[in-house]
Every structure is written in C-alpha cells, then in structure tokens.
Amino acid sequence: MNITIKDVAREANVSVATVSRVLNNKSNVSDEAVHAVNRAVEKLGYSPNFLGRDLRKSETKRILAIIGSTEESFYNDVLRGMQDACFSQGYDVLIATTRNDPEHEMHLLGMLFSKAVDGAVLLAPKIDSKTILELSKKYSIAVCLERLDTEGILCVTINNERAGYDATSYLIGKGRKRIGLITTKIRSQSSVDREKGYRRALEEAGIPFDERLVYYGDYSSDTGTRACEEFLKLENKPDAIFSISDIISLGAMVYANNHGYKIGKDILFFGFDNILFSHMFIPRLSTVDQPCYLQGKTVAEKLIANMKAEEPDISTYMLPHSLILRESTGD
Amino acid sequence: MNITIKDVAREANVSVATVSRVLNNKSNVSDEAVHAVNRAVEKLGYSPNFLGRDLRKSETKRILAIIGSTEESFYNDVLRGMQDACFSQGYDVLIATTRNDPEHEMHLLGMLFSKAVDGAVLLAPKIDSKTILELSKKYSIAVCLERLDTEGILCVTINNERAGYDATSYLIGKGRKRIGLITTKIRSQSSVDREKGYRRALEEAGIPFDERLVYYGDYSSDTGTRACEEFLKLENKPDAIFSISDIISLGAMVYANNHGYKIGKDILFFGFDNILFSHMFIPRLSTVDQPCYLQGKTVAEKLIANMKAEEPDISTYMLPHSLILRESTGD
DNA sequence: ATGCCTATTGAAAACGATTAGAAAAAATGA
DNA sequence: TCATTTTTTCTAATCGTTTTCAATAGGCAT
C-alpha cells in the first residue's frame, strides 16, 4: 500500500541502508547509487515516513508553541520570530491553543512526554509554576512573554514591572495626580508586575494609592468601557488611565469620547501592546511596545541551544520595551 | 535513560504485551495485572512514546490546520470549532503558519506525506488548486473558509459571491447608485467571488460598472484609507463603499470621518468578517458575518469522517452568512 | 601475485510501541 | 478426575527508519 524505503531499495537495486544514506546526504556513497536511488524515489513518489525516522533518531525537529488562543494579535510576531530562529536550524514550529484551560495545557505538554515534539514554549502559562519548573527539569521547556513567579527556567520576556512604572511615571510627568489602572481579575504574572510598577511610580511620586482607581476586569474592550464609566462616576475623577492592554484602553477611550471628555486634555490614556488598532483611530493611543519578534526569536534560539547543551540555560532574559507616545497622552 | 514499556513490564513483573493492553484499556486483562501495571507506571513516571505507538498503528490522531498567519482574528473561532469536533473524536489539532508563502505551505503539507499528521485543513490555500486536488487523492485534505476554483475536494465555506451580492444589494436598496469596492490585488478565491457578487448586484440593478470605483490593495487598514482618499478625489464620488474586509473598511471610515463626511448619511460603509473592532467604534460598521465556529467544526467532522470512509466526501458545503446592520449604513 | 588501504555496500540490530498467535492458567462440566 | 472451554499471559513479529559493523570490491604499491 504505502511506499517504503524497502520499495525504493528494490527499485534501485541497492540495500535500504544505501537508500537511507542517499536520503540523508551521507558522503560515503557512490554517484551511481545516488542516481539510482534518486531515480527510484522520483519514480515511486516516495517520501520518508517520519515516524520511523523520528523513532530511530529519537528526535522530531519540531517544537511546539503553546498559546491561549490565536486571538491576541501580537502572538503573530512572536511566532514569526520563533519560526525564523527554528527554520534556520532545521526545526519546524507547531502551534497549539489551550483555550486558557490549564488541563488542556497539561495535555499539550504531553506531546513533550510522548516525544511528539522536541521542545515547547509556553506563551501564557496557566498551570502553576511549580509544576512547570518540575517538568522543565526533564523536558525542554521555555516561557515567553511572561515570567514564572519563581526562577529556574529559561524565560524571555520584558520587564513588566518596569514598563508599568514607566507608563505611570510618564503620566505623572504630565502633571497628572489621579491615575486610574484597569487590569484583569485573573492574574497573569505580567499584569501583576505591571500593577506593581504602577504602584511604585505612585509611591515614588508621593501620590497616595486609591483603591477606587483600580478596576479589575477581563481582557475585553467592554472591561475598558465599564471601568471608565465607573471611574467617571467618582466624585474625584481620574485625570489619566493606564490599562494593561490596548484593547481595554480603546474600550475606555470610546466611553470617555462619547461622554464629552477631551482625550489627551481632560483625561490621558496609556495602553499596552501597541496593537494595530492603537494607531488606527483618532486620537491615537499612547502605548507600551514590546519587542514581540525579538522575544520569539530569542526564546527559540535559546531553547534549541538548551536542547543540545550539557547544562541548560535557565536564566530570565528581559528585553527592552519602549513607550510609544501619541495623542491620547497629549503628544 | 528513558523509561520505556519494557521498564514498566519488568517493574510490574509482566510482559510488555500486558502493559500495552493495560495502557490501552483492553478488556482481556486481570485486575491484578491492571493494578501492578498502574503502580509501576506511577512509580516510574512512565509515559508512552507516541513515535513508537504511531509508527505501529500508522496513525497519529493529529490533524493540522494550515493558516497564513495568526493575525486574522476570525481564525480563532474556526480553530475552536475544529478543536471541538476533533477532541470529541480523540484527535488533537495542531496549527502551522505558512506566512503566505506557497513553498512553505507545501513544506507543511509534507507532514502529511511523512505521516506526522493524519489530515490537514487548508484555511487559505496559496498553492495552485491542481496540486492540491492531486494531493487530496492520496491524502486527507480539506479546505475551509475558501474554495478552490475547481471542484473535487472537501470544502467548507460560505457563498462569497452571494455575500458580495447581498451586501452590495443592500446598499443599492438604500438608494445608493455609486458604490465603491475595495478589494485585494492578490486574489484569493473569496475576494474574486465577492467581487463577482458586487458586479452582479450592480448589473441586476441596472447600475453601470465603473472601474474607477474599484480599488485594489492589500488586507491592511492603510489600503482602506488610501482607497477612500482616491475615491473622494473623484468628481463623481461614491455614496457607498463595500470592502472585502472590516479592517479595510475601518481604515476607509477613518479617512471619511476625518474629512468631514457623515458616515451613514453622506456615505455608507459595508465591511466583511464582523471582527471585534467593527462594533467598537462609533459609527459601528455594518458587515457580513460568517459562521466561523461552525465552518471549523463542520470541516473537521467531515475530514475525520473521510479518513475512515471508503469513498471520501468531496462536496463543497456553503454555510449561511448573514448581514449585520449598524450605523455605517444608516441603520 | 600478494598484501594493504580505502571507498562502498549490505545484513541485521536497534528505536518503542502494538498485536497475532501460541502457550499457560484458570474455570467449567461431566 | 480429566477433557474442554475460557481467560489471561507471553513470545515474537511488525511498523519504517537509521546506523553499526562486517564484508566486499577496487586501487595501488610492492
């Protein structure tokens, strides 16, 4: 039924060993053999079964990127970075989505245990960090875009605390004193860190923390809208709002805009992620840009290096972020 | 080094065959054996090597979704649909991106030839349809969200011609006579079909086709902006614009808005895809909604059915789309 | 012709699972 | 008890590769 290396060998009048050698460009094989095998391969339309190959070699040359969903658009650049790094070393990148279900995430990591992939990159881990850390001792795992709350695993991200601090400080520098924060109820390490940075900036500026100015929602634009509504109901309204994602900021801006507030004057907005839409609407949104492509490229490179290395690199790399200043902060 | 089924057998004092039977919940195995094996598995932390299993069984229980990039946000629902259909039948869904490079798409299809996955769904095929058709005779391939220009392969999509017709007719029904079309230079079958529908609607309404009212660009919002700029420079300006994607429409609306046109009155806009942002900004965008989740679910179900079937189903299924009417068409 | 070296080759043993078929053990019936 | 059936177990073959190791062929120098 299926054409195997044996059929090729028979057709080419050589042994399977020779066919294998030709297929893998081994040097010690005669020109005649090369031709005969290539001709047979061509004639039979043979293509090698990777299950056999991978089993024998005990490697698949594939790495798995585990994401929550494909919805977050900035994953795209991260994945591009990973691909570039992987392709140049002969690896393929496969993607799988957890749908933000820790159990399913674990199931996907099973592809590592069962040797269906050589390594995995978690782009938004939901399972607890102790488990991940434990697994990383046996398997090639890295974390990207996030960090675990404990050290001990290869991790490529930005300094989210610092980014939160920078954005908030920028608003403070603009003379703002009542700065709202919109973040998520379900805490990823990055949002925890961004909130920490927000608080530190306030503290350093001598601005008292006001819990009424922190809104906990989800990642949707609706959250931004509702948060903004809450904030603007307050007696002591905020004069600036920092959100941990652009989507949220945009939702908030829509509300403020529709209710007669002059964005960039009455109230400033700072987002996070620099998504496509952040500069599509007037006023354009100031935001934190993180080096997505570079993070992806870096994590893949280091993960592959780890797979070959005696002693794996388990450092955390924080790549530089930058502030993009636009009309929403009066720039 | 690695724990194999042999180690488990030794630990449990049974043969590898028995271990395998326990692992696969075969009925003809004693309770004692089950316990002994489970204990050994637990103790050794064994997890089966799928390369061995898959090689022997000649199936991987994995199907591959091939997309251009993760950027197009509506892929997410399609993938969700595919996952739901697949999981319920014990299949995993892996995703891979072609970066819109036909060569790379071919490389990914190689996973099919090399038996690394059991089937593949193309969500935006770039390689020519003859090749795909040819391959589909030997391997389990389906197409989703698009159709090939030739019949003969399992395909789940919407009727794009009809959708283009419906959107354009709606604008005509609103009394519009000069309707612009923004589409893409690089033609996917869906954009070709949408344009056909646009033309048919004009024709049926007795409105002459005017090539100055068709703009060919890419999938970006910039294209929308530039197209709108071109259109509004014309002596005989359009009073409505249909774009083959929401992103483009939004870009166009931004331009019109900034130049003093009253959207929904002076000029109507109709988009395509019903993306999240289409209803985030005022005026909200009227658009064509396609059943993403259902398309994904359907294509996966039918593909899996095909893999078991004697005679594969090679029909094209067109699922119903719907028009979402909002302020941009004065609704 | 002989020996020695090198370049190619092939036979067979992996890799880690599943599974047919044989064998052993247990259960059943008389 | 023993023959017969049923249940459970094991041995060994198999899936399609790669790779070790031994064997062969050919070239060259003596």
Q: How would you characterize the largest beta sheet of chain A?
A: 6 strands, parallel
End-to-end separation of chain A: 68 Å
Say how many strands of chain A there are.
12
Mean pLDDT of chain A equals 95
Give the largest interface: A-B, 46 and 47 residues
What ranges of chain A have pLDDT less than 50 throughout 5 or more consecutive residues?
none
* Discrete helix count of chain A: 12
Integer-rounded radius of gyration of chain A: 26 Å
The fraction of residues in strands of chain A falls at 15-25%
Oligomeric grouping of the chains:
homodimer
Structure description:
The structure is a homodimer of 331-residue chains. With 331 residues, the first copy, chain A, is of the alpha/beta class. The first copy, chain A, contains twelve helices and twelve strands. In chain A, the strands form two sheets. In chain A, strands 2-1-3-4-5-11 form a six-stranded parallel sheet, with helices on both faces. In chain A, strands 7-6-8-9-10-12 form a six-stranded mixed sheet, sandwiched between helices. In chain A, strand 6, helix 9 and strand 7 (214-217) form a beta-alpha-beta unit. In chain A, helix 1 crosses helix 3 and helix 2 crosses helix 3. The radius of gyration of chain A is 26 Å and the shape is elongated. The termini of chain A are far apart. The model of chain A has no long low-confidence stretch (mean pLDDT 95). The first copy, chain A, binds a DNA duplex (30 and 30 nucleotides) through residues 2, 4-6, 14-18, 20-21, 23-24, 28-30, 33, 48-58, 115.
